[in-house]
Amino acid sequence: MRWWLLIFCVIIFKTDLKAQATFNEYFNSLKKVKIDSGVTLTFDEPAQLNPKKTTKLIVFALPNGNTTAQTFGKKLSNGDDWHFDIQHIGAQTAFIRNADQNTNYIVVYLENELKSWPAWRKKFLSGDERIGKLIEDLVKRYKDYRPKITLSSHSGGGSFIFGYINSQVEIPAYIERIGFLDATYGYEAEKHQAKLKNWLNTKNKSLQVIAYNDSVVVYNGKPLVSPTGGTWYRSQLMAKDLQSDFKLKKYDLLDRMNWFNKNHSIAFSLIKNPETKIYHTVLVEKNGFIQLIFNGTKYQDKNYLFWSDRAYEQYVLQ
C-alpha cells in the first residue's frame, strides 16, 4: 500500500472513531416503554447484543427531580438546564463498554411521573410489589441472554432498591450487584440487614455504597438532613451491620472512611466533608457510576479513579 494511501486510511479511521451522534439523535433513538402507574423505562443497549457474551443488565433508578435525559447527560449549551451536567450516566456507560468489550452492558433508566421514588412508593400501596414485578419482567425480557442484574441508584432512587428488597422473601440469585450512590436514606436494619446478609453469603455477589458526610451541611439556615436520616449515618449503619459477618476492614483515611472486604466485592466509600459542602451529585460526576460497576472487578481503577477528574469526558455527547 502506498504511503499516502495508508495515511489517508488512518485519517479516515480517526475521523470515524471521533464521529458521534448528537445527544438528541442518540437519546431519541433509545427504546422507551411506559407502563402503568406512571413509570417510564428507557433502554440503552449496545449497538449489538452478542449472545456469546456475558450480559449485564444495569437498572438505574433516577434521583429525585431529574428526568432521564438529564440523568443521561450532555455537554451544556446556552440555555441548557444545569442538571444535564451533573451525572453523565450515558457517558460513564460508554466508558464501561469501552473498557470491558467482552460484556453486553444494558442500562435501563427508571423514571416515574412524580420524579421521586419515595413519593411514588407512598402513592401506591402496592408499590413494592409493582417494583418486584418490574424487575421480574426485565429479567424475562432478556432471558435469552441470561442476564446478571445490577440494581443501582442515585439519591431518592435508593428508595426503589429498598422497595425491591421489601418485595422479596429473599433477594434472588440473578441479582449480582447492588449499588447506592448517596442513596441509602431508606436503609432500615430490621427490614434489610438479614436479606442483604443472606444474599451476600451466596456466590459472586457485590454491594457497593458511596456517600459523603451530609450531616454537617447547613442549607438555607437549616441542617440538610436529620442526625440519623442522611446517607452518612445510614451508610455507616449498614456497614457496621455487615462488618463482622463479612470481615470488613475499616480504613480511616485523610479524605474518606472506607470499609471493604478482601476483594472489594463489599465496599463502602464515605467522603469526609470538612468544608461542609454539598457533594450529593459530585459523587456521581467524579466517576461514581463507573466505580459502582467496576469496583471489585479486574477493571477496578483502570484508566479511572473514583473521586477524581472525569474519566469519561470524551464520551459526553453534544
Describe this protein's structure.
The protein has 318 residues and is α/β, with parallel strands linked by helices. It has a single domain (27-315), classed as 3-Layer(aba) Sandwich (Rossmann fold). The protein contains eleven helices and twelve strands. It has helices at residues 3-18, 23-29, 68-72, 89-99, 117-123, 127-141, 158-167, 189-200, 231-246, 282-285, 288-294; strands spanning 31-35, 39-44, 54-61, 103-112, 148-154, 175-181, 206-212, 218-219, 222-223, 249-252, 256-260, 266-271. The strands form two sheets. It has a ten-stranded mixed beta sheet with strand order 1-2-4-3-5-6-7-12-11-10, with helices on both faces. A two-stranded antiparallel ribbon has the order 8-9. Strand 1 (31-35) and strand 2 (39-44) form a beta hairpin. Helix 4 (89-99) packs parallel to helix 11 (288-294) and helix 6 packs across helix 7 (158-167). The protein is globular. Residues 1-19 have low confidence and may be disordered.
Percent of residues in beta strands: 15-25%
- Biggest sheet: strands, sense, closure? 10 strands, mixed
What is the radius of gyration?
A: 20 Å
Remind me, CATH topology?
Rossmann fold
Overall mean pLDDT: 93
The helix-strand sequence is HHEEEHHEHHEHEHEEEHEEEHH
Low-confidence stretches: 1-19
Number of domains: 1
Helicity level: 25-40%
Number of strands: 12
How would you sum up the global shape?
globular
CATH-derived architecture = 3-Layer(aba) Sandwich
- Count helical runs: 11
Structural class: alpha/beta
The CATH class turns out to be Alpha Beta
Strand order of the largest sheet: 1-2-4-3-5-6-7-12-11-10
